């Protein structure tokens, strides 16, 4: 004899309520932080980066894999800037007064955005992963996430993009050409995967930035955000 | 400008994004300008050109700063309150734009003034028309600020400022990849050696294009009747047409005054540098003469050295003349460099001149360096002459298998008279370009 589960089954009702209890607030939180829009933006950035990388490599006078340097530096920067708005709430001080384990949630934010951006960009860089491809895109994602995370407690989530943006803009032009591995400690966004120093700096940035953000959170804005 | 407007402008300058913009643009400008200072030190024209190269960084910063400033009313939720005041809203927007523009231009000027410290004390040529290029750079920042103002005012969102900045960066990057569209961007893809200049019509067209663009964008952001933006937009488009339609040959012109040789010929060995590089002459004279002296006794050997930029075509250089890339030995502050950051020394520059005789006269690759040379002995002979000039049996970067001897090592191991005899015949072969002569030269070094 088979059992028939009716809509009024209390076990199912409990499960549904439990699911709603867990998912609905998370969805609300994600919406409040603009995450769905950021996800769409990240997908758009990944697709645009794919097209740009292909165009740069196949245009006349292309120097090969080196041509992808602007994409390898720019795509993670743009994706991280898009996601950075979600590092702070509409009213940080009000949010912090709620009974929520904010440190765990902040860690989730950082790991989630790193994973999402990393996966989206790694997928588009798989043709030549070690020559300005997936490896470098993943490394730069970690580096820019670390920079943005370290900036949020100091400048707030609205301005957390400023240091990464200014840094990338200057490094792209100021880095010695051809790119020297000795300068990897400050030219890490432009280095090939083989530059160990670049990886070390990026890991330090990511760990330091994440720790700072998890402990302190984004600096509350002086006035209510739009 | 009345008193109230002046006060509002001053407040915008002090309390708005302007102070941060000045710091960011000056800092970024100096960092990027001085990173490659050997490309412009001591020369006014290349300094301006490099100031235009770094526009690819300064313009996005100005766009982002202006977009941030323009979004202020929305962020502070004061746009309705401001709408109730009798002051027209365009004045408020225009003042915000003017503040960011002033900050950005001040940032550019401060960075440029820092560069002047490496040019003014030593420059031997005042340049030609470079100040117009700098003025166009300032107009470009006004246009960038107008773009940021329009985007920040018309598009709501927390990330409008960085996205507008990064968007400007991408657009400029794509523009500089295109031979024609690059002239619509304020950014140059590189600096010349100081012997080229842009004619007035290019500066005027770029100025009109950028000023028209700036006016159109400010009107779009601020004016009640937005259709008015069409008038300056029309001016901008009209000015853009000749910029896009002209070939590169129609733009950069040769500055013969900058190329004019400045020479010293004490002791019979003449050293000439282009006027634009003549500030190096005193320091270059002795090391160049030492190199020339090594060719003493070589039949047809070099008796004079000239700066590559002082002659239109190296193939037309007088007999027995070494054509040197003097700019390779310029240090970051415009002084003579014993060894550049890329490892160049006077020996390597001279060695290149010795090998270039074959590459220039005989064209062993026939214009395609990826192809197999028609006569490999030409290449090997040029290489032997190259390393003889450097004068080291184990030069840096050259790998010779154990138990083997490279042709240049064979040459260097011979008595000096034999070496010079070989070089005399090498120079003769470089003039006749007879493959058999090169084959014979290389046969001797087996």
UniProtKB/TrEMBL annotation, chain A:
What are the entry keywords? Membrane, Transmembrane, Transmembrane helix
Top-level taxon: Bacteria
Q: Which residues cross the membrane?
A: 35-57, 69-87, 107-127, 147-173, 193-214
Q: Identify this protein by name.
A: Uncharacterized protein
User: Which organism is the protein's source?
Assistant: Phytoactinopolyspora alkaliphila
From TrEMBL, chain B:
Transmembrane annotation, as ranges: 12-33, 53-71, 92-123, 129-152, 159-178, 198-220, 227-245
Origin organism of this chain?
Phytoactinopolyspora alkaliphila
What top-level branch of life does the organism fall under?
Answer: Bacteria
Protein's name in the database: Uncharacterized protein
Q: Does the keyword Transmembrane helix apply?
A: yes
Keywords assigned by UniProt, alphabetized: Membrane, Transmembrane, Transmembrane helix
């Amino acid at each position: 004899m088979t059992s028939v589960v009716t809509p009024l089954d209390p076990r199912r009702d409990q499960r549904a309520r439990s699911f709603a209890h867990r998912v609905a607030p998370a969805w609300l939180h994600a919406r409040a932080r603009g995450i769905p829009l950021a996800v769409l933006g990240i997908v758009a950035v990944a697709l645009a980066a794919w097209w740009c990388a292909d165009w740069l490599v196949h245009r006349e006078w292309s120097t090969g894999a080196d041509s992808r340097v602007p994409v390898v530096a720019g795509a993670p920067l743009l994706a991280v800037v898009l996601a950075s708005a979600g590092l702070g709430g509409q009213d940080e001080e009000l949010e912090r007064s709620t009974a929520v384990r904010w440190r765990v949630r902040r860690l989730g934010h950082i790991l989630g955005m790193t994973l999402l951006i990393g996966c989206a960009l790694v997928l588009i860089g798989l043709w030549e992963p070690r020559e300005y491809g997936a490896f470098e895109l993943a490394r730069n994602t970690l580096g820019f996430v670390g920079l943005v995370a370290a900036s949020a407690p100091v400048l707030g989530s609205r301005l957390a993009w400023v240091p990464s943006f200014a840094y990338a803009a200057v490094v792209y032009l100021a880095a010695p050409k051809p790119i020297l591995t000795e300068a990897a400690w400050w030219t890490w966004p432009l280095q090939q995967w083989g530059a160990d120093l670049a990886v070390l700096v990026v890991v330090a940035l990511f760990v330091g930035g994440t720790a700072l953000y998890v402990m302190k959170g984004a600096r509350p804005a002086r006035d209510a955000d739009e | 400008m009345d008193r109230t407007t002046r006060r509002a402008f001053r407040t915008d300058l002090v309390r708005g994004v302007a102070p941060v913009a000045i710091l960011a643009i000056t800092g970024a400008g100096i960092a990027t300008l001085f990173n490659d200072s050997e490309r412009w030190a001591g020369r006014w024209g290349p300094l301006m050109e490099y100031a235009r190269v770094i526009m690819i960084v300064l313009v996005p910063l100005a766009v982002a700063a202006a977009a941030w400033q323009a979004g202020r009313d929305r962020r502070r939720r004061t746009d309705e309150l401001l709408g109730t005041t009798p002051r027209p809203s365009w004045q408020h927007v225009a003042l915000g734009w003017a503040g960011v523009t002033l900050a950005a231009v001040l940032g550019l000027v401060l960075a440029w003034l820092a560069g002047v410290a490496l040019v003014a004390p030593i420059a031997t040529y005042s340049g030609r028309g470079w100040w117009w290029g700098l003025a166009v750079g300032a107009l470009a920042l006004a246009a960038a600020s107008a773009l940021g103002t329009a985007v920040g005012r018309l598009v709501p969102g927390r990330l409008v400022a960085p996205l507008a900045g990064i968007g400007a960066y991408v657009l400029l990057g794509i523009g500089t990849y295109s031979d024609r569209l690059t002239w619509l961007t304020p950014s140059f893809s590189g600096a010349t050696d100081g012997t080229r200049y842009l004619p007035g019509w290019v500066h005027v067209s770029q100025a009109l294009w950028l000023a028209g663009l700036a006016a159109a964008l400010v009107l779009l952001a601020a004016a009640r009747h937005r259709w008015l933006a069409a008038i300056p937009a029309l001016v901008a488009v009209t000015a853009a047409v000749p910029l896009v339609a002209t070939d590169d040959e129609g733009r950069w012109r040769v500055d013969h005054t900058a190329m004019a040789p400045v020479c010293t010929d004490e002791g019979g060995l003449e050293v000439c540098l282009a006027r634009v590089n003549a500030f190096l002459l005193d320091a270059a004279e002795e090391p160049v003469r030492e190199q020339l002296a090594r060719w003493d006794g070589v039949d047809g050997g070099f008796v004079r050295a000239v700066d590559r930029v002082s002659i239109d075509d190296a193939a037309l250089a007088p007999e027995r003349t070494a054509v040197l890339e003097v700019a390779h030995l310029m240090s970051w502050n415009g002084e003579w460099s014993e060894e550049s950051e890329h490892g160049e020394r006077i020996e390597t520059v001279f060695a290149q001149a010795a090998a270039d005789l074959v590459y220039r006269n005989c064209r062993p690759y026939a214009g395609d360096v990826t192809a197999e040379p028609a006569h490999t002995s030409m290449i090997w002979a040029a290489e032997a002459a190259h390393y003889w000039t450097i004068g080291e049996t184990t030069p840096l970067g050259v790998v010779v298998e154990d138990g083997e001897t490279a042709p240049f090592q064979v040459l260097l191991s011979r008595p000096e008279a034999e070496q010079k005899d070989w070089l005399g015949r090498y120079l003769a072969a470089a003039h006749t370009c007879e493959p058999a002569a090169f084959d014979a030269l290389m046969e001797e070094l087996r």
